[in-house]
Structure prediction request, 644 residues.
Amino acid sequence: MAREFYEFGPFRLDPAGRGLLRDGAAVSLTSKVFDTLLVLVEHHGQSLSRSELIARIWPETSAGDHNLNQSVALLRKVLGDDPRQPDYIATLPGRGYSFIAPVRSAVESDASAPAISPGITRKRWQYAAAGLAVVVLVAALTMASPLGSRMRSTILSMRSIFSTAPPRSVSVLPFEDLGISSAQPERQYIASGLTQELSAELERLRGLKVIVGRLSSQPAREPAFGPATLDPRSVGRDLNVESLLRGSVRRSGEQYRIAVQLINTRDGRELWSGVYTADISDIPSVEEQIVRHTADALRIPWSASLDEQWARRHVENPEAHDLYLQARYLWSTRNADAVERSVMLLRQAIDKEPSYARAYAGLADSYIVMAINSQQMPVAAAVPLVREAAVKALQLDPTLAEPHATLGLLKSKFEWDFAGAQEEFRRSFALNPGYATAHHWAGQNLTAMGEFEAANAELRKAQELDPLSPMIFEGLFENYYYWHRFDDAIQTMHTLQARDAVEFGNAPFSWAFAMAYLAKGMYPEAETIYRQLADRYRIDVYFLRLAQAQALEGHLTEAQAVLERVERKPDHSADPVSLARVHAALGETDAALALLQRAYRERDPDVTIIKYDPDFAGLATDLRFQQLVQRVSTRSEQEYTTSR
Prediction:
């Protein structure tokens, strides 16, 4: 049977095989970019309107100008075409596009036609021996870049087809930055950004479970998790995951060399690997190729909706994407100064790319961290900014799960609309069931509602997706603590300490033991821990906790002296709930209640949990305390009960 090909410049287009060659080497194209090229080439020399192109390329789905712009922009990168002086695609202002290069048609038989594959190829040789068929995977494929001369990607090896049941869970281990020294952590944002964005995009693949793969900071465990000496079977058991995606980034001048490897943790075999050379503007396209190759290796179908999502998330301005990666890296540190700088960088990214939905989502996350740390930004100032940024992100991209989770945390922590928060979390789950942060925050919201059993289940789900997250361990501890299951709370933190002693000590998480010890009446043990923390960090919250332990132990004079020293500070920076704990321990009910009323007026998030806080159990019979609890919880509890 004969097959028709189109030839133009150094390119050869195969409509039947849906492939493209450049000087004989296969070029990787996404489905819609290939469709765009085919429509333009088939109508070369003709003027095609934007509406006509959209109707031909997206015949069964809704698409708009942004989708077409993104496909044409990517196609120009593939062809190495300059839109200002085009050799292939001319823009017709106000109308559409035209393919202007000379096109030659060629007809060849299948036997003589070259094989063209848009992605990873497999060749099978069957051998008959004692009735057994053996399928052998061969070769490595070097692909010309879809970004022309600016990016090369080489697939070094492809997935094995021996396994009848491909892995359906994957963990993206932190990418190594081989070109940055440990003395320059601020420049490691490319590797960090790749890790986060690949994890987020893989989570969108239906049928694939994505587990967060953190590197342990405990020296004894570095060999097991460090990419250079990684034992896939051991990590797979630790994370309960069937495959690992690991990689490295090396910078040379303005170019980045990104090496990636997908490994089966059942037997340690490589499923595929690739090397990409790109400049900063090409990083999003590299990410798309990695996700597509991973999906192919794991036999996860690629839907048309995924193409639409990639088009929606496409960033025209490379500087905006670079600023976004820097900001997300800074935000992830949770350092106050770094979070403040992340806001500035995200604002710059939005100035360069006003339709950048992810930048708005990042901005909402930065503001909510600043709101939780009310000393960094007053709650009254931060909350409207969080809401505005999250809503804008969803207007630009309704498929993003992250802004819904952020709005859920906002409603829970600052608006005390717990039912409304649960609804936002449900929306986030529907868009991305694998987003561990949403499950974590949803669990905290359920704790505030007193739904401890449901909170435990939600937090366990978060931990399943992010097994090594210290913050999720903290959430589990707090749920047990407010559930008044203090021994379970202590055991939770012992588990974290055993998994990662260095992280436990650096955080530090020993305050959790002291909280539980106080609740159990183990006052000397609690006082010892709080004294160590106060001496080491010299911050008010630990001094006040120390005073609380001293008061409960009967050392009233010492406790009163610490309390007065903090309260006399001219900046009045101590939070009212921490002050109220000490006054309650001293038996000063009126002062404690006055401070809790102040915390309520200031929308302090800790007020949401005072109903279940063991530190305020002595106030439970006071009518003023009961009224305060009622004001916080009544409306939301009724709404939640009605919605169930």
User: Anything to note?
Assistant: The longest helix spans residues 623-643. The two ends are 62 Å apart (CA to CA). The chain has a mean pLDDT of 83. DSSP finds 26 helices and 18 strands in the chain.
